[in-house]
Amino acid sequence: xxxxxxxxxxxxxxxxxxxxxxxxxxxxxxxxxxxxxxxxxxxxxxxxxxxxxxxxxxxxxxxxxxxxxxxxxxxxxxxxxxxxxxxxxxxxxxxxxxxxxxxxxxxxxxxxxxxxxxxxxxxxxxxxxxxxxxxxxxxxxxxxxxxxxxxxxxxxxxxxxxxxxxxxxxxxxxxxxxxxxxxxxxxxxxxxxxxxxxxxxxxxxxxxxxxxxxxxxxxxxxxxxxxxxxxxxxxxxxxxxxxxxxxxx
Length: 249
Fold this sequence. Notes:
- The chain is 42% helix and 21% strand.
- Strand 2 and strand 3 form a beta hairpin.
- It is an alpha+beta fold.
- The protein starts with 11 loop residues before the first helix and ends with a strand.
């Protein structure tokens, strides 16, 4: 995409999504050095992107669909609505035609809500714990993305995944985002690494598209690595790196 110079301010969202080409990204990086409003807007868009990624990263429980479908069978459908006497025939016909879809929608909605309520009741504590963990992760990601000294680099892994790293020297933290990451396969997971002068130290796991805060100390690390490892991760890389990307500085 090409934009006139005066349109630079509208590129914050595309920048946060990694949708700019190399020249546009370089120009916008330079623009961020002098524009506080765009730095704030880009950080907010980045935080929102991370929240959306984290939201879809949680797979629904396997039993949820079966419970909802079972609940639907037990919900009585409402009868069609019959218009009161005196209603014009055309309007009456319209209401009758709309009554069945409305009734069906109401019964399905009741079944879905009922099934969710039952599932939540049975798994309330687990849900609360997952919610707390998700919120903590979102807060950590958002804090890095919104840091005034946050720096961003983009890369592409050998398996085609698009990657982004945002690092804050003040917070001594870095965030890794992956898109189009192929499934790792049975018994495998993707592992992140921090390269400390040639020594690869574990920095967390990521097994699908999403955003994670790197574990470990990125302060004296030079690069972020990505490998395919046995499920649960490894103390040292066991495969060739799919990505070795310099940390932003």
